TrEMBL record:
This is RGAP1 protein. The keyword Zinc applies. Residues 1-42 form the Phorbol-ester/DAG-type domain. GO terms for biological process: mitotic cytokinesis; mitotic spindle midzone assembly; Rho protein signal transduction. Keywords: Metal-binding, Zinc. InterPro entries: C1-like_sf, PKC_DAG/PE, Rho_GTPase_activation_prot, RhoGAP_dom. GO terms for molecular function: GTPase activator activity; metal ion binding. It comes from Irena cyanogastra. PANTHER family: RAC GTPASE-ACTIVATING PROTEIN 1. SUPFAM superfamilies: Cysteine-rich domain, GTPase activation domain, GAP.
Amino acid sequence: VIRPEPCHVCGSRIRFGKTAIKCCQCQLLLHTKCREQCPSLCTPRPPHHAWPREGVLADFAPSTPPLVPTLVVQCVTEVETRGLTETGLYRVPGAEQLVREWKRKLLRAGGVLPALSSVTDIHVVCGVLKDFLRGLKEPLVTFSLHPAFLRAADIPDDAASDTALRQVVSKLPPANRDTLAFLMLHLLRVSHSPDCKMDVLNLSRVFGPTLVGHSSANPTPLAIMDDTPRQCKVVARLLSLPPSFWKGFVETEQENLEPM
């Protein structure tokens, strides 16, 4: 043992320089004396790849569709499990320090995430999801397609606007498109919960800057002023699209969206 770690059988720490037994399949570590008490079966762990501290969405997406990052799936699952009775979901902030700590912990864990059930305040989980999306190098609505989303949402005729938005969504990179679809279905469930008191307008105000952002990493003050109300309009229009449209992107491989 080079780095002291706890024995998975007795729980006490295996000290530096001591001989230990480690399973080559599941990486279970234990004292040599605890070998007899070790469970006979093990579950191979998937290869561990820590995520980058920042990147585009595809850097965090799995290799099989739907291409929704595990962090997003796990946060959404936790929120829907115990958060749909919370007033002000996504509007009420979680403790900043806890949000930063959990985001750092999840990014460091990579694809094998620790359970979020130990996070007492569900608003912290909401904060982690929002902070992850805000921290991407470019928003879910990519820089190149940003103007097209704004133009589509500005079309006064609802049917024409919906058609234009569907076309622009289909042009997104697969990971961005699948994740946007997954989030839209989630936000629609939040908007339909009377306890949350978060209708489409409230959610679009919260998620407009996060999901739509600007057309560049360093927008001018004038661009920020022009974009801000239109960001909310884009999200509101996206949430007005029928759930069947969004389900078409994520339900073909729905079993892959089970949180790890």
